[in-house]
Structures are given as C-alpha cells and as structure tokens.
C-alpha cells in the first residue's frame, strides 16, 4: 500500500518582483525569475531522489492568469524533461479556472503527456493504492471553503485518500471562507497537500503547506523546500521530509548598535560569510549610535552590499546619540549649523509625532554624512 509523491505549490512562474529595486546593472529581477524557473528541475530531481513519480502542485503554478507565452512554454518544456515523472497542476487563486481559462486550455492542448491540468473536482486514480482528491480554485476570491467538496468525494475501499487544495486555514474564528484545520479528519484523508502560504507550515500530522519552492519575500528565513511524502497505508501517519529546492536565500537580520561601538564590526558580525551572491539581505539597524558611527555603518553597507544578490540597510528604528562635537564638524556657525541645530531640535521634540522626529534625525545623519564626504 506504500505510495510516494512530491508536494509543492506556489511556483508563481512569471513573477515580476516589482517590490525589489533593480540596480543599475539590471541583474537581480532576472536572477529571481530564473531561480523560480529553475525550481522545476530541482523539484523533479527531488522526485527521482525519493523514488516518487508524481508531483502534486497545490495551486499558483503561474503568477497571473495571463503569463507570457515564453514563461508558459519554457515551464512546459522543463516539466517534459523527464517523461517518467507526472506533474499534477491545480489552479490556485492567481491562475484560477475562470480568469485563466485560456491558459489551462492551451496547456491541455500543447502540454506534454506527463503533465495533467486538474480543472474539475473529482477523484483521480494515481495508482492502485492511491486516489487524488483535488479542489481546483474556480474564482480568485470565492468566499467559500475550497475543501468542502472533499467530505463527499468517493474513493475505493482501502485506497489512500490524498487531498489537494489551495487556500488559507482558519481556527474557526472566521466564517465559511477558510479551510478547517481538521479537514483531514472530516474528509477521511491520509494527507492534505495545501498551497497558498508561501512558507513551510505543518497544520497537523496529515495537513501540510509545502511553501513556495523558491522564496519571494523577507519572512521565512530559509530556502524554499518541497515535501517528499510517503504514505504506508490508510490511517498510518505520513512520512514527510523537507527537500531544499531554493537557489536563493532571503534573510532579515538585525544589527544592534550602542554609542561608541564599532558600527563596521557590528555589521560584519551579523552578515553571512558564505555564498553571499545567492543571498538577498535586509538589515535593520537598531539601538543608538552617534553621527560618526552612522556614517561608518552606511559606508560599510555601501562597500559590502554589492557582494550580495540584494542588500537593503534599514535605519528607521536607529536612534541618534547627539554630541556637540559632531555638530561642530558639520559647521560651527552659518547656514549648515542652523540647519543642523533645527533638525536636532525637531528630532528631540516630544510634541512631534515619532515619524516626524525620525525624519529629522535621518536628515541630520545624512547632512553629517554629506559634510564628511565632502571633507574627504
């Protein structure tokens, strides 16, 4: 009765990554799109490595209902590379049945024989031992639980019941639009493969989100994975193994500064030392630092940043330790000193909103940096 398969979701092929600023060389968004396409091959390799011949994609294979022809054709070609592996694509909210109907029609017509579009909710025999029970998303926002149909989907006696769906899980505080966390029990499932959440999450022993195989945000702190699942029989808890598929790592880090500390050394201490070219990094500077330390921090970030795929230094929560000598370095009198004193006063004014105070503090730090740069 043993059955093995790969569970993945949310490839979002064709994502534009407009939220990531493009550097002058125009490299990062192209790398992100290429890594996302390359995940197809890495998922297929995971299937071969774990003795699986079926890959279940729990929705959002494509980022939009109308991906470019090249995105679709290249994806189909990649999935056709190994005809011994079967791909089962479930429409999700981004590539739902109604908005993406021409897309699914084209894939059915032109896709390889080992690729199967699941456009109806109904039992599919994967093997004599296993039945797939899919719930394709019809509308982007339907307002109903997409897994409700699983409770009445039939399967042969003794067959492993594998649910495949796309949507968010609720804790019963919401009304009707989300997936109950005990859907495996109410639908008598041996495994429920879910998509929609881009991070890896286990809801229960039989209910899992694989997350996106290639991450796309500073949130999850690990490379994308797919899940190699082994079912040894009805009622037996599944074996679930995470298999790394992500080529790029998105990381959120914090560097905490104190007045007088070496800001350059503090930054270097939190940065990864290996494979920097494959890391997208967002660093939050916190604590307090004097104006010279803030300049040193920004210069270190400017120097080290190009070693990474993407580097973003955030200083909005960094507080400034003011020193009269630092203001004298800007100017001992005249317009620049008047500006510096005014910004300092606003940054320390408790009657102003914190956002306004932060803007003034940041402007003062930048004024100091400009003066020091001109003095070099």
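^ structure tokens above, recovered residues below v
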């Amino acid at each position: 009765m043993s059955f093995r398969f790969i569970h993945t979701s949310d490839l979002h092929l064709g994502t534009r990554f407009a939220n990531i600023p493009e550097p002058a060389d125009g490299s990062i968004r192209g790398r992100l799109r290429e890594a996302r396409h390359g995940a197809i091959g890495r998922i297929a390799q995971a299937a071969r490595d774990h003795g699986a011949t079926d890959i279940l994609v729990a929705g959002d294979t494509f980022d939009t209902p109308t991906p470019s022809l090249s995105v679709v054709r290249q994806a189909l070609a990649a999935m056709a590379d190994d005809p011994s592996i079967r791909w089962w694509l479930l429409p999700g909210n981004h590539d739902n049945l109604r908005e993406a109907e021409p897309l699914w029609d084209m894939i059915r017509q032109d896709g390889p024989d080992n690729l199967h579009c699941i456009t109806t909710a109904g039992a599919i025999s994967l093997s004599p031992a296993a039945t797939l029970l899919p719930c394709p998303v019809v509308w982007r926002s339907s307002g109903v639980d997409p897994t409700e149909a699983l409770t009445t989907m039939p399967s042969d006696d003794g067959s492993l019941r594998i649910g495949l769906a796309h949507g968010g899980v609720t804790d019963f505080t919401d009304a009707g639009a989300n997936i109950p966390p005990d859907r495996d029990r109410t639908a008598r499932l041996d495994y429920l493969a879910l998509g929609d959440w881009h991070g890896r999450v286990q809801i229960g022993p039989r209910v899992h989100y694989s997350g996106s195989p290639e991450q796309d945000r500073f949130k999850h702190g690990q490379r994308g994975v797919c899940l190699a699942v082994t079912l040894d029989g009805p009622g037996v808890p599944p074996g679930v193994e995470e298999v790394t598929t992500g080529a790029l790592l998105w990381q959120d880090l914090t560097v905490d500064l104190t007045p007088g500390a070496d800001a350059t050394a503090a930054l270097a201490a939190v940065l990864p030392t290996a494979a920097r070219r494959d890391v997208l990094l967002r660093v939050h500077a916190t604590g307090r630092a004097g104006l010279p330390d803030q300049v040193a921090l920004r210069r270190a970030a400017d120097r080290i940043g190009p070693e990474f795929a993407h580097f973003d230094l955030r200083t909005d929560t960094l507080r400034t330790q003011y020193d009269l000598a630092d203001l004298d370095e800007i100017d001992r009198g005249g317009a620049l000193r008047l500006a510096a004193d005014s910004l300092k006063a606003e940054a320390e004014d408790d009657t102003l909103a914190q956002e306004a105070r932060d803007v003034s503090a940041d402007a003062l730090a930048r004024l100091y940096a400009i003066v020091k740069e001109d003095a070099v």
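The first strand starts at residue 3 and ends at 8.
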